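pasting for the record
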Amino acid sequence: MRRDELYLVDMIEAAAAATTFVRDVDETAFAASDLIQSAVLQKLLVIGEAAGRVSPEIRARWPGVPGRSVTDFRNIAVHTYFEVDWSIVWRIATTALRELQEQLTMLLKAEFPLVASQLDQPH
């Protein structure tokens, strides 16, 4: 089984990528682009899957970090893909992901400082 810090890094990197995908587009352009929609949704699915695998111990120590809601979104998106509300995906990508990324980075720095320090390093 993977370690918690790896799931946290997956979530941070996916949030950063999804935020980058929508950086220079407005909601109309997002709604018109299957490519951007698909890319953002895929990153949200990664976040949801990883969130569901973080240990109960970490979730208990960090109750303010979204877990269940992210996992629930992932399950809904996977099982009802053709009914995805793209306006919700847009709002998540343009507002919620920045905050999530900040929360997860704070968590990673507190729980796994060595891993957090490596996250800022170029690959």
